[in-house]
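Appendix B. One record, verbatim.
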Amino acid sequence: MNRFAKHASASRKSGEGPDTASSDELTCTKQKQIYPEKKSNRNKKHAAVIVLLLSFAYILLGRPSESNYTNHNFLDNSVQIQAARLRVGDELTALTRVVEESKQDCTRAEAEAAKWKKAKEELENRIATLKKSVQELSGESNDADNRAATNNQAGPEQISSTRAVIHMGIHKTGSTSIQISSDKFQKQLELDGYEMPWVVNIKRLQNGQGWNNQVHFSTCFLSSHIPEAQAYPCNPDLLLAGSNIATRHRNLFVSAETFDNIQVDGIKSLRHYLSQWDGATVVVYYRHYYSWVASIYNEITRSADPQHYKTIMNYVQQHMLEGAEYYPDIFATPLVKRLQTEFDDIIVLNLHDKSKGGASESFFCHSLSDFPRTCGAIRNDNEEHGNSSVDIDHIHLTNAAIGSGLLESGEDYSHILELVKDKFSAMKKEGYEFKKKCLSPGVLDKLWNMTLGFKRDLFPDDMANANDPSMDEANMRSDFEQAAVSSLCMLDVDDVFSRTDLQEYFKSLKN
């Protein structure tokens, strides 16, 4: 019982009843006056207890809103952590894969390094063998005193700056003569400081003469689809031999008219290869286009089998006029334009300039000043080798006979050619005259215009050729008109076959 209840009970025991209102009011008033301080103290204590309890509750339980927020935050963080774990797992997996691939790359690299090391050792061995072969073939194994006595020189030219000289033909401009001379006078070339990669000798017989041609060197820089590259595949030994020459600080000389097929990519590769020398010079021969066409046709017809035989009319129209895909591209003017994309030192020699001698003399005595001993040997030799055009009337006649059915093409083709050649020569000696078929006026006009265009593009300065009558366009026109009724013509086989005696002759060959 609280104090207020005890006080009320005491009041009733003392006779104070409920109807004594004034006494109650007085009592309450007195109580207010007697206990106000105690009441205040009690209220403060109660408040303190409540505050203390609420504080404990706050500490233990926390605010509801903050608790909910914290719980939500915890869930969000859990999701984020789980997502991060997944990402880290993926990254670890990817990193592990990269590490494994790197290990595999390292393994492959080690295997490749071992492979290249072995290849390097093989190349070094091959170079040593090639060097020995070069020494043997170039005569380096001979006694130096004897060689000096032969050439009236103390020894090879001392070279301060090396050079590579590449003769690129073109076809039918005296290349054979240059190649035979370079083979014949190898010792003189060596004394002039030049060597050739003759490690693999490409020997061919032409009219009883053996000559070397670095065609298998040149095809290393040609596109694989070109017929020459397929017929004469690249020989890497020649490239190694050339590099060996550079290593020994010697000049390089290579002659191959097959280079006239080279395209821009091959020219870049050749320029890179020749960077082994301090300088590089390319020499190209020019021949009037109509004259070159006649010479090319003559050689093609000599070497073609009956299945690939063409009349000169068909040949010129298919291969030599504007729009043809092959032969005009290997002519001197287009070749020089391609070479100018990579080479600065290009020398163009005019085959028609007879004041400089034949092809060999003009090359070794006039193209450069680097060949004094070789030039002297060539001038003393007084023998010009070549691969000139020949009479091919008997070839036209034999192929026409095969085409008409008078003869059959077989294993005896070469033998039949010789028989027909002898018959035809005998008839000419007896005074028989045979008609010719020539190119039409329209085709001749196109051929002449191409000739002028090629000449003017390559030699734009007329003053530079003022002293060369072969480059005078009036003289060129006169020579062209002569070619139009001779070298640009062929035997009129229809007229020949109109002779009964020749028909009977071919029938006898068939039997």
